[in-house]
Amino acid sequence: MGRGYFEGDPTIVNSRMQEKGVNGTVAAEVRKQVSREYGSPQLTKKRGGVSNPLSLSEVVEPVDFEEYVSSHAPGVEPGPLRQLMEFPQDDLELLHLDKECITLEPRVPDEEDSLDPRVRDALSVYTDDWLVIQRKYRHYSTTFTPHSSERQRERQRGLVKQTFELDVTTTDHQDDQDDAKRRSVGLDETPRGSWASSIFDLKNSTPDALLPSVLERTALEDMDHCNTEARQQGRHSDLLGLYPPPDEDEAVERCSTVDVPKEHCGQRIMVKCLALKFEIEIEPIFGILALYDIKEKKKISENFYFDLNSDQMKGLLKPHTPHIAISTLARSAIFSITYPSADIFLVIKHKEKLEKLRLQAEQSCNRLGRFRMPFAWTAIHLVNVVSSMGSLDRSDPDSDSEKKGHGTWNERKKKTFERMSIADDMCNFATFRPATLTVTNFFKQEGDRLSDEDLYKFLADMRRPSSVLRRLRPVTAQLKIDISPAPDLPHYCLSPELLHVKPYPDPRVRPTKEVLEFPARDVYTPHTTYRNLLYVYPKSLNFSSRQGSVRNIAVKVQFMAGEDPSQALPVIFGKSSCAEFTNETYSPIIYHNKSPEFYEEMKMKIPANLTDNHHLMFTFYHISCQPKQNTPLETPVGYTWIPLMQHGRLKTGSFSLPVSVEKPPPSYSVLTPDVQLPGMKWVDNHKGVFSVEVTAASSVHTQDPFLDKFFTLVYVLEEYSFPFRLKDVIITESNMEAELKSSMVALRGALLDTCVSFLHQLLNKIIQLIVFPPVIGGQIGK
User: Fold this and answer.
1) Which residues pair with 278 in a beta bridge?
2) In which residue ranges is the amino acid composition biased (Basic and acidic residues) (predicted)?
């Protein structure tokens, strides 16, 4: 009711208050209260007291809609408002959304005939179309989303502002005029205790419009019809949209907009290797790029191999590389950085031929062409590239742009560096200006300082002046590279699995490689594509107690499907200027060292049908650098291995393995080298002398013991492959249900980031067990 009703017709007010029986108060008391509150301002001033307002209506709590609907069934209260209580039957929509493939080839394994159950389930998740559950009437809800305020303003745009009498505040000038009029009449001439005290307000007020046909008798049906039509006139199409949007702090319910799941990707930079020149060029030199985070003390990318040798140098190795795949000729790489910081370095390493034979370069390349040795290294502090080549405009201070109020170059430089703090949250590798660098400060790679711990110390010293780097032997070299933000859709790009990323117009063009990231910290994003890669890192070898001539040691690594030598699988990625895949790879050689350290990375594809017979085979060779009569080039001096699949789990981690002097006996692949096999001779009395690390970047194998056990039991139940040995427990029909329940309870101990990474598969299996309870021994599981 507007204020005009109170001021224009007190009888109506009093009668309506009596009808409502406000708090059981006598009508006279209400009139007195109204007279004091809404009477002449002069009366209030003359009384000089502050009156306690009388509540004319009790405060009513708003109705809890959910509680009301739950306590009142829709069928109990039929009527025109029933649709507001019921859940809309057509609110939920199921939509099929095609899953986008960013590569020309499908991301599926090569072996499509016999797939491991894990791979089969993973492929069904990664290749099937998205099933999207969409709510049609979600935009009518009061749920707070990042777009609620903007959507509400869009609805209210163009509306006529409604102004009511209570919202209109009179000006001071009008109040003074009213006060003067009221002073001209004595208080004794005006009735007290009633609305008549505001007689001048009544005289000056505008009467309300007359209501026609008030006293005429009208049928109820006709009146309802007229009222319905009147209510529809001038009504806003979205009545609920007029309600102001909820504030983020006061929102009862929050709902973020869900995007289509996609593979995680951090800030991306492109590195192009342009030229490499050494003071003396007599043999091929090969380069490696990788990112390191010295704060986390972690290598945060896989290796990128490049070859900048001339055609003449490449010709020296032609007998060892009859076929060169174009994918191994890449000279530019795209690195992804999820957690940018000031502690990230781009490390560059170079390898050469065996140093003793430089004078006979051509002869040694023919004989030792597949062997390398560490040569030199350097590093680039990426934050220096970003800060020095940021969004600065290094133009002349007297240029027109400076005269327009942009400030001097020094002022803009100061402001830019204020914005670009060295703090982690200010390091941005996505918007800096491209930079072309010429690196000349190379250091000799010493054979006893190749470990990652040594590298982290050197990188920490590069951030500040230190005497440590001065003790390193310099190498005269010059490397020219280009560093820039990576484009959103680069052309001629290969994925880490060497698949052609769209767009790829011509397969004959030298490609750019996407380098797989190893994030410094956990990333909470589900897998959406098939990936099944294995990385092997030989660390160190101690043959100091090994008898015989064992000095120039090389480690040959093979991915074996069985124990026969012919079962070495061609799943090892080539490096630079070689075949795309090979069945064996060698570590660099540390010249005349019986206890070498290694820094090599060996990348492999994990077969889709992994069995207990698959294993990594390590063969240690003594390499004869100088040709001697009746002396072979390679002399095997040790063997060891790692079974890759045991008890349904992919074995990864750090290993300290004993090395056998003799070839392992038959059926060795299902055992670990820690088992004391009869009749075998071991180096250093069966102690662990070879350190190696094995990691996997897989969207198939979880590498979490709790998740692995749950998935393994589910697959055993689906295949009904009883009995099954799971570590020390034999899974049979009698104990299957108890073991499955125990594994589900133990899922609470799984790593959170791993659970999120395999969320789709995990939810699929749990929901499947709920909807379709398994039948074990003729009984339905509970």
Assistant:
1) 477
2) 170-190, 393-411
| 493-547 confidence digits (pLDDT tens) | 999 999 999 999 999 999 999 999 999 999 999 999 999 999 999 999 999 888 7
| Residue 642, token pair as written in the block | 């790692």
Cis amide leading into 503 (omega within 30): yes
pLDDT (0 to 100) of residue 146: 62
- Confidence (pLDDT) at 169: 57
Q: How far apart are CA 490 and CA 221, in angstroms?
A: 71
What is the full DSSP assignment across 246-271? PPTTT-S-B-PPPPPP-----EEEEE
| 257-261 long-range Cβ contacts below 8 angstroms, 24+ apart | 257/145, 257/146, 257/147, 260/97, 260/130, 261/130, 261/525, 261/526, 261/528
Q: What is the structure's pLDDT at 416?
A: 47
pLDDT in tens, 40-92: 444 444 444 444 555 555 666 777 777 777 777 656 555 666 666 677 788 88
443 and 473 Cβ atoms separated by less than 8 Å: yes
d(CA 267, CA 431): 9
Tokens 């007290």 correspond to 192
Pick the CATH number of 532-698 from 3.30.1490.20, 3.40.50.2000, 2.60.40.150, 2.60.110.10: 2.60.40.150
Q: How many residues does the chain have?
A: 782
Is residue 574 a contact partner of residue 603, using CB atoms and an 8 Å limit? no
Instruction: For residue 329, report the phi and psi dihedrals to the nearest 5 degrees.
Output: -100, 10
What local confidence, expressed as pLDDT, does residue 654 receive?
96
Q: Which of 293, 367, 372 is CA-nearest to residue 600?
A: 372
Dihedral angle at the C-alpha atoms of 234, 240, 244, 245, nearest 10 degrees? -150
Report DSSP letters for 290-304, one per residue. EEEETTTTEE-B--E
**CA-to-CA distance for 768 and 79, rounded, in angstroms?**
41
CA-nearest of 383, 481, 474 to 438 is 481
> Are 109 and 115 spatial neighbours (Cβ–Cβ below 8 Å)?
yes
Matching CATH topology for 267-388+427-515 and 532-698?
yes
Contact yes or no for 335/269 (Cβ under 8 A): yes
**HSE of 764 in the Cβ direction (CA atoms, 13 Å)?**
14
Transcribe 140-169 into DSSP letters. Answer: GS--B-TTHHHHHHHHHTTPPPP--GGGPP
Residues 6 or more apart from 579 whose CB is under 8 A from it?
321, 323, 324, 325, 328
Question: In the prediction, which pLDDT does 147 show?
Answer: 62
Rounded to 5°, the CA angle 251-253-254 comes to 90
**Annotation: CATH topology of 267-388+427-515:** Immunoglobulin-like (2.60.40)
User: What distance in Å separates the CA atoms of residue 696 and residue 700, rounded to the nearest whole number?
Assistant: 10
